[in-house]
Amino acid sequence: MAGSVGAAKVTSRPSPKRYSGMDPPLSLARPTVFDLQKTAELEKFLVDMGLYEGEEQSAKREEVLREINRIVKGWVKRLTSQKGFSEHIVEKANAVLFTFGSYRLGVTPSFSALFFYCIHLIPSGSIVFLIDDLIFILM
After folding, report:
1. What distance in Å separates the CA atoms of residue 110 and residue 51, rounded to the nearest whole number?
2. Cβ(107)–Cβ(48) under 8 Å?
3. DSSP letters along the chain, please?
4. Could you report the per-residue pLDDT of 29-38, keeping only the tens digit for each?
5. Phi-psi region at 40: left, alpha or beta (left = phi > 0; alpha = psi -120 to 50)
6. If exposure means fewest CB atoms within 10 Å of the residue's CB, which of 6, 79, 122, 136 is most exposed?
7. What percent of the chain has pLDDT over 90?
8. Helix 55-82 × helix 131-138 angle, to 10°
9. In this structure, are residues 119 and 72 in contact, taking their beta carbons and an 8 Å threshold?
10. 111-120 pLDDT per residue, tens
């Protein structure tokens, strides 16, 4: 074509597949026999080292999480009221706890900590930052 330098070749690329999370998986391949063997060895090691808690320990940890959840939900309602929201909003205010770390992965020896974070939900469309309040009220 006259006047064009290095005309680009147009190729259609398939649209990228969407994955949950930030990045696509490293691989979509099924595990190999070697992978399955190494997984079994790792799980046996974790069991032998006592890194899976028993049913009694698991029940106690769940009980602690339920109590923390109850305390946080009460705290959120009190804080929402103190911030001047209407009684209707206070009644609807809620908190959600999310666990992470070894507990979330299912590897929880009796000496491990229980990590969680809390999201404070207020049904008013407001975004509320509560770090100062959390430190002040819980200390």
Report:
1. 8
2. no
3. -TT-SSPPPP---PPPPP-SSSS--S--PPPPHHHHHHHHHHHHHHHHTT-S--HHHHHHHHHHHHHHHHHHHHHHHHHHHHTT--HHHHHH-EEEEEEETHHHHT---TT---EEEEEEE-TTS-----HHHHHHHH-
4. 999 999 999 9
5. alpha
6. 6
7. 15
8. 110
9. no
10. 677 777 777 6
Separation between Cα atoms, residue 40 and residue 51, nearest integer Å: 15
The type of residue at 89 is I
Cα–Cα distance for residue pair 65/74, rounded to 1 Å = 14
If you search the block for the tokens 């206070």, which residue do you land on? Answer: 90
- The tokens describing 5, both together, are 């330098």
Examine the pLDDT at 10 and tell me if it is beyond 70. no
